[in-house]
Amino acid sequence: MTGRIEGKVAFISGGASGLGEAMVQRFAEEGAIVYFGDVNDASGARVAEATGATFIKHDVASEEQWNDVMSRIKSDHGQLDVLVNNAGILGTGPLETIDLDAWNRLFAINVTGVMLGCKHGGLLMQGNPGGASGSIINISSNAGILATASDCGYSATKGAVKLMTQSIAINFARRGIAIRCNSLHPGPTDTAIFTPWRETEADSNRLDKHLKEMTPLGRIGKPREIANMALYLASDESSFSTGSQFVVDGGGTSALAGM
Ligand SMILES: NC(=O)c1ccc[n+]([C@@H]2O[C@H](COP(=O)([O-])OP(=O)(O)OC[C@H]3O[C@@H](n4cnc5c(N)ncnc54)[C@H](O)[C@@H]3O)[C@@H](O)[C@H]2O)c1
Questions:
Q1: Which ligand 1 atom minimizes the distance to the CA of 140?
Q2: Residue 196 falls within a domain, yes or no?
């Protein structure tokens, strides 16, 4: 531990698996007081036990539950320094097969959930004892920069997160509110989000081959590699960055396809 975010109070949504779990662990290693939410009780308890962080059962699509989370953190510590809007799900498939209920649920989690986090986390940060301050990190995707034909809804939600982040960042900055807001864009990273494509060994090998081929570095990312960028954005090392996109994708969005 080097204390890069020593004493900062952080909340990470969807922290019971994958990238969120790696962030909970990394932030705790660097001295933060870490709270995390998730809809999955059992995994939340496991991650809390492993990291010493505090788990709160929490659905990002519920405004009432965002209120409850922020009230709890306010009553425990009186401040919030870092918010990571990480919870997210994969989408709806291609345009021609979209089911409207699934589309609405996807937007409720991937877009409305991020907005509610920014709204309620931002309000708590504005009341921080030393004056408004904080860093909000919204997890978008490489699919929020370049589109996928195979998942219309996912690209739409992740693109929305990118522009919502810019809007929020500029809103705070122009009002002289010292809360930064940036988006983080991971490329393919080894987490449970791909479980539906790993039903058989053959499926899993096909997926791995595809993900490696779309990544110039020739491999799938590790959750800790994404968490390290979140850590930088959470820390004061990134103090001049707001409204920006931070891509960690093994080079995947750098080249035109096939060139
Ligand atoms: N893994 C990748 O390759 C990759 C790439 C780009 C972006 N992302 C994004 O990273 C984020 C994390 O994904 P991951 O790969 O770690 O997936 P994951 O499935 O391993 O973890 C997501 C977590 O979010 C939780 N969650 C789902 N719905 C929720 C809700 N309504 N409220 C609260 N928690 C909820 C799940 O229970 C799970 O613990 C997502 O926003 C995803 O879109 C992932």
A1: 7
A2: yes
How many A from CA of 173 to the centre of ligand 1? 29
Residue 183 alpha carbon to ligand 1 centre in Å: 15
pLDDT of residue 259: 66
Question: What long-range pairs does 115-120 form, CB within 8 A, spacing at least 24?
Answer: 115/164, 116/60, 116/61, 116/62, 116/63, 116/66, 117/13, 117/60, 117/66, 117/83, 117/85, 118/83, 118/85, 118/164, 118/168, 118/181, 119/66, 120/63, 120/66, 120/67, 120/69, 120/70
State the catalytic residues. 154
CATH number at residue 104: 3.40.50.720
Looking at residue 257, what is its pLDDT?
A: 75
**Cα 12 to ligand 1 centre (Å):** 11
**Residue-number span of the structural domain to which 184 is assigned:** 9-248
Overall number of domains in the chain? 1
Pocket residues: Cβ below 6 A from ligand 1:
13-14, 16-20, 37-40, 43, 58-61, 86-89, 109, 139, 141, 186, 188-189, 191-193
pLDDT digit string, tens, across residues 94-137: 899 999 999 999 999 999 999 999 999 999 999 999 999 999 99
**Ligand 1: distance of its center to the CA of 193 in Å?**
6
Q: Report residue 84: phi and psi, to 5°.
A: -115, 115
Flag whether 148 is in a domain.
yes
Report if residue 253 sits inside a domain: no
Query: What does the pLDDT look like over 187-218, one tens digit per residue?
Result: 999 999 999 989 999 999 999 999 999 999 99
Which of 35, 89, 92 gets mutated to test ligand 1 (max ligand atoms within 8 A of its CB)? 89
Two structure tokens written together for 238: 């990134």
